[in-house]
Design brief:
Blueprint: H1 7-12, E1 17-18, E2 27-30, E3 34-38, H2 47-50, E4 86-88, E5 92-93, E6 108-112, E7 115-119, H3 134-144, E8 147-148, E9 153-157, E10 170-178, E11 183-190, E12 193-201, E13 207-214, E14 222-226, E15 243-251, E16 254-261, E17 264-272, E18 275-278, E19 282-286, E20 291-299, H4 309-325, E21 329-331, H5 340-357, E22 378-379, H6 383-392, H7 396-403, H8 405-419, E23 430-431, H9 452-462, H10 467-487, E24 489-491, E25 494-496, H11 519-538, H12 545-552, H13 597-610, H14 620-630, H15 634-641, H16 667-685, E26 697-699
Antiparallel strand pairs: 1-10, 2-3, 3-4, 5-8, 6-7, 9-14, 10-11, 11-12, 12-13, 13-20, 14-19, 15-16, 16-17, 17-20, 18-19, 21-26, 22-23, 24-25
Enzyme class: hydrolase
GO molecular function: polygalacturonase activity
InterPro entries: 6-hairpin_glycosidase_sf (IPR008928), 6hp_glycosidase-like_sf (IPR012341)
Length: 713
């Protein structure tokens, strides 16, 4: 019997520690629904140092496909930044345009066997000095609206209310995130005085608490809550933002504010052990002692109870200790391979970052609550990457929070399906809390997000959820499967996935009107429809014969002359760059009747030897690792997770920037790493041998759905 993992020691040996300032060195506290990102001061004191460099030629695109001149600005390794934001799952606003806009004006009709089908694919340049074609204005506005709001900022300020300017003003810096308690401790010298700052987020409410200890407070320094302007640039057709703040002084130590940004109105309560005074669009807390505590509570729709710093800190300590103590743990202690410590660090930090950014009431954005990409919208094809690992690591309750969003989005999904001539509900790619589909020349043609809700619900069913859970969520399973069965087309006794479509490997954008039968999506369609019928049987219903017929008779994926899988069944069949998505048909998915393990093994070999691996993205390394683990090749699984690539670098804070590119935070890579480690640990538990120098100790890992780890050929 292996010795139990000392979880506290495992977690704390990877606490991020910052001893100097860098534009990407930030730390975040939060609870999945709200987050606050700070600099080395322990607060948000130096926003301009961390602000993203504006790009006047940024282009509205869903990815980096296309010609180089169409790609977003490239950030050099020493040039990229992570900005300081306070963001939530509920804080969104819409801009106003200088003309009337109708969503239907962003559609193009594509010829299909069901007749002409409208797709919201008209979109154009945004925030660019170049003129934009009128027919694309509507698509651009809907693509970028609504926007996730920056709710405000906590900063250390001088007696006159200004900040200290630049982090070079700090010396002897040591800022540490204690992962075990979810608390940031900052210590430094500023203006000749030692400063100690403790920052923490309430695990249950929209609240942050700060304690500052310094002689600077006796000299008039304070802590300010500042309402910054929203960071998103406006396009030429968007009107200036309407912003307003109303202050209400409840007591010397307690002020309330109502903040309005266009369509968003929210409340902010600031309380302190000192006293408060208003200064323009901020309120500043001062003290007549060397200790000052400030608590900021944000209220999207209700008045929340007031709590002091100690109560918030103690609540966070209890929540995070329970979080780390329950669910799964993986330790690489005892490994002699020089890379083991780095892999373990990535594993631990990814658990923290996804709990803070990806465990809220809505599916998360690719940069979570840290800062906005695509104005904060979330991409449903990434939902699996962000959140499946919660269940794979025995923390399914964190996944379940965001799955409830699909119930509110169900009607919108049904409208899309009907508009495209199908039953059921079609889930969008890029969306927001409203569930409105965003115009896109890529996203509206993607299919692989469609079965995700079935997969994620199946993970929770595998945890032992009871009949009440199944009945609550079965409407999502049914509507999802109805669309899938209706969308597939029967030809000569087999079912195909017809155009227009773009596979998970988005390199086939230009062929969207003719693309058909992508390898991964064929297997995913078949597997998910079978799972949907499993739900019916468990609920005492008869199996849906149409779902079963489509699942059993899906077309087999195309095999190339070299004995490996193509990406799609239509020309050009395979492009060896970007996501090697055909690997996901076995690895990310369990074994199905459509996929031959020997052929997939040859495909993995081919990707390893011939793919442009430097063009891959942060979740592609977990893709390769999961396929290798399913095939029993643990050595290649580990090598994939640690593959040298600019997009497989993990910063001291655990974030994975996509360089070159415009994503300086990419949480699908963190979630993918955790999912891949669950696959790897399962392979080891089922008898697969690790390479020399590696020792993996795992505890608390649930079984994978339909596990099938095969002996390495």
């Amino acid at each position: 019997m292996p010795e139990a993992i000392d979880r506290r020691r495992l977690v704390r040996r990877h606490n991020p520690v910052l001893t100097s300032a860098h534009p990407a060195d930030v730390l975040t506290v939060g609870n999945g629904d709200i987050a606050l990102t700070v600099d080395v001061s322990g607060l948000q004191t130096f926003p301009s140092f961390h602000e993203l460099v504006p790009d006047p030629h940024r282009v509205v695109r869903d990815g980096l496909t296309g010609l180089p001149e169409q790609r977003p600005r490239v950030f050099d390794a020493d040039d990229f930044q992570i900005p300081l934001r306070t963001q939530s799952t509920w804080g969104w606003y819409e801009t106003r345009a200088d003309r009337e806009l109708r969503l239907e004006d962003a559609t193009t009709l594509y010829e299909t066997s069901r007749g002409p089908v409208p797709y919201l694919d008209r979109m154009g340049l945004q925030r660019a000095g170049d003129p934009i074609a009128e027919e694309f204005v509507t698509g651009a506005w809907y693509h970028f609206n609504p926007r996730r709001a920056h709710l405000g900022r906590l900063a250390l300020v001088r007696p006159d209310g200004t900040g200290p300017g630049h982090p070079a003003a700090l010396s002897d810096v040591r800022t540490e995130l204690d992962l075990w308690t979810g608390t940031i401790h900052a210590a430094y010298v500023l203006d000749g005085e030692p400063v100690r700052v403790t920052t923490v987020a309430d695990p249950h409410d929209h609240r942050f608490a700060v304690r500052v200890e310094s002689g600077l407070l006796l000299r008039g320094w304070g802590v300010a809550w500042v309402f910054d302007d929203q960071p998103d640039d406006l396009a030429a057709f968007e009107l200036p933002l309407a912003q307003k703040t109303t202050w209400d002084r409840r007591a010397e130590h307690h002020w309330n504010a109502r903040r309005t940004v266009e369509t968003l109105t929210y409340g902010v309560s600031v309380s302190t052990t000192g006293s408060l005074r208003q200064a323009a669009d901020s309120v500043v807390a001062h003290a007549n002692t060397a200790v000052l505590e400030v608590v900021v509570t944000l209220a999207p729709d209700r008045q929340q109870d007031e709590r002091g710093f100690s109560a918030v800190r103690d609540s966070a300590r209890a929540w995070w200790a329970e979080h780390w103590s329950t669910g799964a743990a993986i330790s690489l202690a005892g490994s002699t391979d020089a890379r083991a410590g780095e892999l373990e660090r990535r594993i631990v930090l990814s658990q923290y970052l996804t709990a803070v950014n990806s465990a809220g009431a809505t599916p998360p954005a690719e940069s979570g609550l840290t800062y906005n990409t695509w104005t904060g919208k979330f991409h449903l094809e990434m939902h699996w990457w962000h959140a499946a690992h919660f269940s794979l690591w025995g923390r399914g309750h964190l996944l379940e929070r965001s799955l409830r969003w699909y119930h509110g989005a169900l009607d919108a999904g049904k409208v899309t399906a009907r508009r495209q001539g199908c039953r059921g509900a079609r889930w969008p790619k890029q969306t927001d809390p409203s569930a409105r589909e965003s115009p896109s020349n890529i996203g509206v043609f993607l299919l692989w997000q469609q079965p995700h809700v079935i997969y994620l619900l199946e993970l929770l069913r595998g945890e032992g959820r009871g009949e009440a859970f199944l009945r609550e969520h079965y409407p999502l399973v049914e509507a999802t499967a109805d669309f899938m069965a209706d969308f597939a087309e029967e030809r000569d006794g087999s079912y195909e996935l017809p155009p227009p479509l773009i596979p998970a490997q988005e390199s086939y954008l230009l062929d969207r009107a003719t693309n058909a039968d992508p390898t991964f999506e064929l297997a995913y369609w078949s597997w998910a429809l079978r799972v949907a019928n499993d739900w019916r049987v468990e609920l005492g219903l008869e199996a849906n014969q149409e779902w079963d017929r489509v699942a059993r008779n899906m077309r087999r994926p195309t095999v190339l002359p070299d004995g490996t899988y193509a990406a799609i069944a239509t020309p050009p069949l395979l492009i060896r760059k970007d996501h090697p998505s055909m690997l996901m048909a076995l690895g990310w998915l369990p074994e199905t009747h459509l996929v031959d393990p020997a052929t997939m093994s040859a495909t993995l070999d081919s990707v390893w030897e011939h793919w442009d691996l430097q063009s891959t993205w942060g979740w592609d390394y977990p893709v390769m690792a999961m396929t290798a683990a399913r095939l029993g090749d643990t050595s290649r699984a580990i090598d994939a997770l640690l593959l040298p690539s600019p997009k497989n670098v993990f910063l001291p804070n655990g974030h994975n920037p996509q360089i070159p590119g415009f994503l300086t935070v990419y949480l699908p890579a963190n979630g993918g790493l955790l999912a891949a480690m669950a696959h790897l640990a399962t392979a080891v538990n089922q008898g697969a041998e690790l390479p020399d120098g590696w020792l993996i100790t795992a505890e608390g890992l649930p079984a994978l759905p339909h596990p099938s780890v095969m002996p390495h050929p």
